[in-house]
Automatic annotation (TrEMBL):
It holds the Pfam family Zn_ribbon_TFIIS. Its main location: nucleus. This is DNA-directed RNA polymerase I subunit RPA12. The keyword Transcription applies. It comes from Glycine max (Soybean). Residues 29-71 form the TFIIS-type domain.
Length: 71
């Protein structure tokens, strides 16, 4: 069975298949929206650049849904 050949190769090399699942966990923070002035937002962070750089934080205003981000 040719379609399973890569499974056999990975097994022989002792490699595991790691599936990536994206789970966004949102947290609330007191942050003033630059567009409407609302004082609360939800946010999540993500590594967008190389590992030696900081994470990017993405905010969404809970009042009107305005997006913003900080590097």
């Amino acid at each position: 069975m040719l379609s399973c050949a890569w499974h056999d190769i990975r097994r022989e090399l002792g490699m595991e298949i790691i599936e990536e699942h994206t789970v966004m966990e949102y947290s609330k923070v007191n942050k003033k929206c630059e567009k409407c002035g609302h004082g609360e937002a939800i946010y999540y962070t993500r590594q967008m650049r190389s590992a030696d750089k900081g994470k990017t934080t993405f905010y969404t205003c809970t009042g009107y849904g305005h997006p913003s981000q900080e590097n």
